[in-house]
Amino acid sequence: MDRMAETTTAPRRVGVEDVERLQRQRPGTRLIDVRTPAEFRAEHIPGSVNVPLDALAAQAAALRGGADPIVLVCRSGRRAQEAAQRLQAVGLAHLCVLDGGVEAWKAAGRPVRTGRPALSLERQVRIVAGLAAALGGILAAVAHPGFGWVAGAVGSGLVVAGVTDTCLLGSLLARMPWNRAGGAGAAGSGCGGASDRGPCCG
Fold it and tell me: What are the residue boundaries of the structural domains of the chain, listed by start?
């Protein structure tokens, strides 16, 4: 396990038991949660620290110190993988990604700290995309056919997001006040925003 954590090559995906083993063998192991502040406040792994995905560049120097492993966490693993790639690009090593994220942690029966419930970024993307497509279709039918481009644009955006595993809409939503620390509509305590090309479903 230490060999896995100490590698300077591609970040490894690790399971829940692997993380616990790392924490026992290397007490300095850090769990970094890269989700939005609202998501983190709603529920997070005890002992994890929130560093938003869009704040990683500013925090890279602080994260670089020490030789202990850094385990990156998000809801399901996608944003954490993006975070690992970004940190590795600026020279950080000893990176791991919790495979399956917080969802896998809960599925394994491990505890989480909870606050007020919040919509995950994935659900927000689905809601906004669905509303935009539905509204475009309705307006095209009752007002002007030109509104049909709205539904087409949403569909095209979802195709691009699926092919590239990135999502501009997710990035924009992560920057909304209710998803930021101190946002009036946010639930629960500290986590991060999405990247400039944040994955929709992580």
Answer: 2-114, 121-175
**Catalytic (active site) residue 74:** yes
Summarised one tens digit per residue, pLDDT across range 106-125 is: 999 999 999 877 667 777 77
Kindly provide the residue ranges of all beta strands, DSSP E only, lying in 46-92, ordered along the sequence.
49-50, 70-73
CATH number for the domain running over 2-114: 3.40.250.10
CA distance 120 to 126: 10
How far from 51 is each of 2, 62, 181, CA to CA, in Å? Answer: 24, 11, 11
Burial class from Cβ neighbours inside 10 Å (0-12, 13-18, 19+) for residue 2 reads exposed
Instruction: Report residue 179 as tokens.
Output: 């998803």
> Would you state the structure tokens that stand for residue 83, as one six-digit string?
């975070």
pLDDT tens for 189-201 read 333 333 333 434 3
Query: pLDDT digit string (tens) for 143-161?
Result: 888 777 877 777 777 777 6
What are the E-state strand segments in the chain?
A: 12-14, 30-33, 43-44, 49-50, 70-73, 95-98, 113-114
Contact status, residue 118 vs residue 39, Cβ threshold 8 Å = yes
Smallest CA-to-CA distance from 62 within 14, 96, 30, 27 is with 30
Which residue is it, tokens 């929130």?
Answer: 50
> How is residue 165 annotated by DSSP?
T
